[in-house]
Write the structure tokens for this entry.
Amino acid sequence: VYYLWRLGVWSPTLAAGTTRSHIPGVREYLAVLLDPNIGLVAWMPALAVLTVLGAAALLLTRARRPADLDLKLTTLCCAVSGPTFMYGMTQALNVNSGGTERVSRYTMWLIPLALPFLEAAVMGVERRRPLLITALAVALVAPYLVYFNPARSYAYLWPTRQAALLYEYAPGWYLPLPEIFWERQMGRDTWALQDPGSAATAQCTLILLSKRDPNQPCPLTPEEAEQAQRMFHGGWRSVWIVRQGPLDLGRAGVFGEAR
């Protein structure tokens, strides 16, 4: 209310020009969770698994003590806050941004919201395997402290190992946001979020083809070129060309990206 009253916008970031107010698509909304470059699942899989286990434990058990009810109410608040936070993250103009080393700085905001779910998972495991959580904590925290040391500069201009493997062996299973793909393949920043231009992986299994800037290193087959031109004439500004990887995983074809 204060920002609307004094600035005329609901957030000062809109007035500063660092965010844009829009309704995100599904891929854009879930990028901070699932994207192999910036997502929480790719970089903190143990936390993601324990969060799911904790949510299941809370749903399947009844609150017998006041502390159990408090934990359920806390996780409910986090379950509501998390999707709201994720919506706010999609409003940023610079989605492909680093935080500590690789994971997106916006993704880091979700970690505190996962702690109540983590507590529920720990309580459930400790009853059956009291030493397992301690051993798991040591095994995870030690390498995390080294790899995600805040003193390390963030890296966002080349694809991660997870993304490179996915693009090579299972292209089409996950199509990244154009900004993330283009910046990491080309090695430089762009402000063109929806249609930054054309780019391709080194193996030419995944190609982002732009109508306004079609230059990219992979030659197209006559069928791919014809289908892409047909989609450009139909109003698409950029399309994905997906080819089978060496293991024949994923889907091949030409798919629209931005109109």
